Amino acid sequence: MLIPLLVVAILMLAAHEAGHVVLTRFLGGRWLGIEFKGIMVGVRLSVKSLSLKQIAWTLAAGPLSETYIVVLACLWRPHDAHWFLLLLGLEWVLNLTPWGLFPNDGTRLWRLWRKHALS
């Protein structure tokens, strides 16, 4: 069970970052490269030409892309679906909660919302 879970986790990571890149490029932004910070990996994007709503969607595209991988994993190994769904839930909690301690999608969405609410 550990190997399939690890494979799905790696595919989720790739889909997450690809989701950010694909939607940013589709909306007119630019991909500037891959960035590694310790054990964290991310993509550098230029979103200067995008509206606040478009930026919010590019942030949400990462976690939403992971869902696609988990659905495929559940179809691939239905008897392990509960592990894949747990992995998705944990990743969403870690990534979408605006911890403020590290630059996750939740923190960036929170700052974007505050910037919009204060302006």
Please count the beta strands (DSSP E, at least 2 residues each). 2
Unreliable runs: none
Q: In percent terms, what proportion of residues is strand?
A: 5-15%
Order of helices and strands: HEEHHH
Rg, nearest Å = 15 Å
Helix-strand makeup class: alpha+beta
Can you give the helix content as a percent range?
55-70%
Tally of contiguous helical segments: 4
**Which descriptor suits the 3D outline?**
globular
Largest sheet: 2 strands, antiparallel
Structurally, the number of domains stands at 1
Rounded mean pLDDT is 94
End-to-end gap: 49 Å
Neighbour order of strands in the largest sheet = 1-2
Transmembrane segments: 55-76, 83-102
Organism: Sulfobacillus harzensis
Keywords: Membrane, Transmembrane, Transmembrane helix
Protein name: Peptidase M50 domain-containing protein
Defining traits:
alpha+beta; 68% helix; Peptidase M50 domain-containing protein; membrane; 4 helices; transmembrane helix; 13% strand
Describe it:
This is Peptidase M50 domain-containing protein. Keywords: Membrane, Transmembrane, Transmembrane helix. Helix content is 68%, strand content 13%. It has 119 residues and is of the alpha+beta class. The chain has one domain. A hairpin with a 2-residue loop joins β1 and β2. α1 packs antiparallel against α2, α2 packs antiparallel against α3 and α2 packs antiparallel against α4. The longest helix has 26 residues. It is globular, with a radius of gyration of 15 Å. The model has no long low-confidence stretch (mean pLDDT 94).
